[in-house]
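Input chain follows. Return structure tokens only.
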Amino acid sequence: PGLTLAADAAIGMWGPTNTDVSRVDVCLGGWLNGGGYTLTKIGGGPLGLRGVASNLAAVVVSNGFLFSESVDDSWGTNLVVESASRIGMYNNRRTTAAILMRGGAISTWGSVGSTYAGLITLASNSTLDTESRMGAYGGAEIFIAGSIGGPGGLTKLGTQTAHLLASNSFTGGLVLNNGGGQINVNSSNGPALPSNVQLGHGVDGGGTADIRCYQNNQFGPGVVVSNRTTWNDWTRLVLLGTTQTIAGIDDELGAGCLFGADADVGVTRPSVLVIDAAADHQFNGFLWDRSTTNSSTSIRIVKTGPGTQGLSGSVKWGIAPMSG
């Protein structure tokens, strides 16, 4: 089965976004030839493009959930996501499409991970959500292998892990909500986190929020890390034996944590945090070399710049308090 466009077209079904009741699957096991035209998804019901795509000028998601499940790159090469929309993949699918986010969410369609390998541009504030919000479909890890740019910011939701694997340049900042699981930053060619980072959003009982660093220099110039959480919901910046440079670290309520290692096994290199502060910052949280005996790393803090970095939290709580 196949579908060929002879003009710009729209497809979709009106109905709730978070249920299969109004779902439409297109080109399952077949092909979608765009003929050089644009296909727009309309309606709140989920739409699956499940065939081999070619010759699409663009796919525009104006409403509801667009998903991919059967083949890689079923969305073509250019994707536009409007503010009331979500996109997601399932079954280890991969897309190399250039994605323009005008709000809306990059998400997952189910419980098996997915990879976004094309350029992502945040034209406005958008969401990265590792839960499908489709009931029994659950959530999955998301791997962002392409660069993220643009003036917008990114808010991470969902308990599954998101992986930022490339150098990014978006300027609107990152918020990792309480209950937003963790973000692993692992870029080998520049900062994965180019603008200010906020861990937690101050909702009591929402859950933890962690960033884990797997290579050196994951923060862009001038980035400040702020912890906005409560005593019931820890936030963690975990260095894992890497060296990171930031412009300051803040914590208002004392529930933020700076770790060399958490329960990680075999981290032996020093975990170095360089604080190059131009302004004044205050960290009232916890400083841990490690929380278990699985690793031997220790935190070392280097202070540069004319600003003041206050450290007034506990350095004595946990298995191994700060000793570096």
